[in-house]
């Protein structure tokens, strides 16, 4: 399985709230967020790990450049206008089979992630498997419609009867890269629009429920994330 991390955001909200380190290097229970993800990926049979970092984050560039891993580590340094564009910059490393992509501030339990990856590998029919959760603590959640077989039927900005929201962990196949390229060619942006297009393109997307996934967007989220991981 190839893995990818989007670590190209500016982390401006954390900086405004007094967090000196760039977001990828913020530590949760003593470990940098980006290192935590890398270690989880390595524990789940990573064939390669690809990371995009923006041009302003020199500390992060130095950190990832100094990593010594037992699998290929691909580093892209580029500032992009959205996570969808960051994904595109990584896609050439992700064309040879199933892959998993996430943002650096997506926090989840390791055991749930392992079950998710195993389920994605085992599902021979799925064009993608997206992490979802019924824990909603997001400023602008993306709701996920599913049928009784957990097939994804839509991604919605608002929904009165949706149980789940997107967890920000994307298990996909190279088939999704064609959709991504089409999105960029038609001037679309934002990952949620890309996900909607996957449904419009009739890709077979499954939802995999996590009990809880949290994002680190604010200083107070660091404490929440640490407590969650200890629980």
The CATH topology label is Spore Coat Polysaccharide Biosynthesis Protein SpsA, Chain A
Shape: globular
Work out the number of β strands.
13
Major beta sheet summary? 9 strands, mixed
What does this structure look like?
The chain has 231 residues and is an alpha/beta fold. The chain has one domain (2-230): Spore Coat Polysaccharide Biosynthesis Protein SpsA, Chain A (Alpha-Beta Complex), CATH 3.90.550.10. Helix content is 34%, strand content 26%. β9 (143-146) and β10 (152-156) form a beta hairpin. It is globular.
Topology:
Elements: E1 2-7, H1 12-16, E2 27-28, E3 31-32, H2 33-43, E4 48-53, H3 58-65, E5 73-77, H4 83-90, E6 99-103, E7 106-107, H5 110-122, E8 128-133, E9 143-146, E10 152-156, E11 164-172, H6 175-185, H7 191-200, E12 205-210, E13 214-215, H8 219-230
Parallel strand pairs: 1-4, 1-6, 4-5, 8-12
Antiparallel strand pairs: 2-3, 6-11, 7-13, 8-11, 9-10, 9-11
Helix pairs in contact: 6-7
């Amino acid at each position: 399985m190839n893995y990818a991390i989007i670590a190209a955001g500016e982390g401006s909200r954390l900086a405004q709230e007094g967090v000196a380190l760039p977001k990828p290097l913020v530590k949760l229970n003593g470990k940098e967020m980006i290192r935590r993800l890398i270690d989880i990926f390595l524990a789940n049979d990573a064939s390669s790990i690809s990371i995009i970092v923006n041009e302003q984050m020199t500390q992060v560039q130095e950190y990832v450049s100094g990593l010594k891993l037992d699998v290929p580590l691909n580093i892209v340094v580029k500032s992009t206008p959205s996570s969808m564009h960051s994904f595109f910059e990584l896609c050439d490393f992700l064309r040879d089979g199933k892959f998993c992509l996430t943002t650096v501030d997506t926090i989840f339990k390791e055991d749930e992630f392992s079950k998710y990856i195993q389920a994605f590998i085992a599902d021979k029919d799925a064009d993608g498997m997206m992490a979802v959760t019924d824990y909603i603590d997001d400023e602008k959640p993306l709701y996920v419609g599913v049928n009784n077989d957990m097939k994804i039927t839509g991604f919605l900005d608002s929904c009165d009867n949706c149980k789940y929201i997107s967890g920000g962990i994307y298990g996909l196949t190279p088939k999704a890269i064609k959709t991504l390229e089409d999105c960029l060619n038609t001037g679309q942006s934002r990952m949620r629009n890309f996900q909607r297009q996957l449904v419009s393109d009739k890709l077979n997307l499954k939802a995999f429920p996590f009990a809880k996934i949290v994002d680190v967007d604010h200083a107070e989220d660091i404490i929440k994330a640490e407590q969650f991981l200890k629980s």
